Amino acid sequence: MEYGDYQCPFCASACAVVDQPEPYFEGQIRFVFRHFPLAEVHPYAEVAAESAEFAGAAGVFWEMHEALFRSQAILSVPTIMRIAEKLRLSETMMRHALETGQFRSNVRNDFMGGVRSGVNGTPTFFINGVRHEGPFDFASLASAIQIRLTADSHA
Question: What is the mean pLDDT of the segment spanning 14-20?
Fold first, then answer.
């Protein structure tokens, strides 16, 4: 599980890595992304998170997720709307969802779950409920996953 922020450059770097271990572990793992927008530092992080939730309701969360990170350098509301258009999401419905805060509670619940778990920056990873303190390159994540899988199978 990753707690992340769509405007965090370290999260963008992690985005390129986090899906790599999945084929290596052949169905033994599942990657979960939780929103942890650091809105004081990243003005578009919260709207991006709500947009990803909107996209998720339409079945294209991961496509929006990856596009938001790819567009991080130019992230803005117009950029998010262009991404939504490319994903064939209704701009009218998305604007309405953002204006009414339809998905705000989802994002806030993720954030508060992170706070309760001791998250204070992004990205923060947990592997089977244990905080990963090491780097988030492929070798480090794969090693940490293997250690957790082995420990959990002996528990």
Answer: 89
